[in-house]
Specification:
Elements lengths: L1 H14 L4 E4 L5 E6 L6 E5 L2 E7 L1 E6 L2 E5 L3 E5 L3 E9 L6 E7 L2 H13 L13 E5 L1 H13 L7 H17 L4 H8 L4 H15 L6 H8 L3 H12 L3 H19 L4 H7 L5 H12 L3 H13 L7
Antiparallel strand pairs: 1-2, 2-9, 3-8, 4-7, 4-9, 5-6, 5-8, 7-10
Helix pairs in contact: 1-3, 2-4, 2-5, 3-4, 6-7, 6-8, 6-9, 7-8, 9-10
InterPro entries: Homeodomain-like_sf, HTH_AraC, Tscrpt_reg_HTH_AraC_N
GO molecular function: DNA-binding transcription factor activity; sequence-specific DNA binding
Protein name: AraC family transcriptional regulator CmrA
């Protein structure tokens, strides 16, 4: 396991030589690196698995906190707002991570075949949208072989899908099997909550009731609230608020929009309420927060999701 993890780290360092996000020629595979601890960053995580080779990172979803270390992986089963922070990283021992998008079609195909052969355990309760587990030598070995393909690009179209399938099979047969199976099943509670999340993402600027959202998810209001909270660690309205504030922050930072206009654009009628909730989430009023972000950016603090 230690030798495999060392090789995994060396490959990520080779193909991601500087801090930040490094896209690869393998579809769905991104490498992430940080050479020093990073400031907490609010981002929306998408369905993926993050396999850590070196360093340490903390992810906070609602009131739940997840820490993952070398030889562990974090899975994300829904689009969820997360506060992420690289907590352990040095130039000699950087934070190094491989992120692979979760392909639900491939996962469904694996489940269908695996269940015919009784090689994947089944269950009903999906659990939280984030979860951390130990990777094990088989998953690390498959990740190493995936990165080794970068040295022979002509092999990627043929071999990368086979290794991706192996990685997903290991995940579906691992400690998070029940929750990941729910992700691949169209009629699961996880996918019903996912439909509610997609609706919120499209209409986050608008007020809505849980009853309207429940109809979109084809659930009762009480069931939606219960499962939404269990999976995302927040209520639908809290989820909407986080999307609103992250979008407003982006408008102020990228488009140079003033705070009042940004708040109105994302659905706030009261500038004072917007400023109050913005400060509560980001730790400073809009103008000061954006100034701090720009200073961090100029100092080389690059976001590592």
């Amino acid at each position: 396991m230690t030798a495999g993890l060392d090789k995994f780290a060396r490959l990520i360092e080779q193909y991601c030589p500087s801090t930040g996000r490094c896209d690869t020629d393998i579809p769905g595979v991104v490498l992430l690196r940080a050479d020093k601890p990073m400031e907490p960053v609010n981002v929306v995580y998408q369905p993926s698995v993050c396999i850590l080779a070196s360093g340490e990172k903390t992810a906070m979803m609602g009131e739940s906190v997840y820490v993952y270390r070398p030889g562990q992986y974090l899975t994300v089963s829904l689009d969820v707002p997360v506060l992420g922070e690289v907590t352990v990283a040095t130039p000699e021992k950087p934070y190094l991570c491989l992120r692979l998008d979760l392909n639900t079609k491939v996962m469904a195909d694996i489940l269908m075949e695996a269940r015919e052969n009784n090689v994947v355990p089944s269950g009903r309760q999906p659990g939280p949208a984030l979860q951390v587990s130990d990777a094990g030598p088989e998953l690390i070995d498959a990740s190493v072989r995936m990165l080794e393909l970068l040295a022979t690009p002509r092999d990627i179209p043929i071999l990368a899908p086979l290794i991706e399938r192996e990685i997903l099979y290991r995940l579906l047969n691992g400690p998070q099997s029940v929750r990941l199976q729910q992700l691949a099943m169209a009629d699961s509670k996880l996918n019903q909550v996912s439909r509610a999340i997609e609706w919120i993402k499209k209409h986050f600027r608008e007020p809505f009731s849980v009853e309207v959202l429940a109809r979109e998810a084809n659930m009762s209001a009480s069931a939606l609230h219960q499962h939404f909270k269990a999976i995302t660690s927040m209520s639908p309205l809290q989820y909407q608020k986080q999307l609103r504030l992250q979008e407003a922050r982006s408008l102020i930072m990228v488009n140079a929009m003033d705070a009042a206009s940004a708040g109105y654009h994302v659905g706030y009628d009261s500038p004072s309420q917007f400023s109050r909730e913005y400060r509560r989430m980001f730790g400073a009023p809009p103008r000061r927060d954006v100034e701090q972000l720009r200073l961090s950016s100029s100092a080389g603090m690059v976001e590592v999701a």
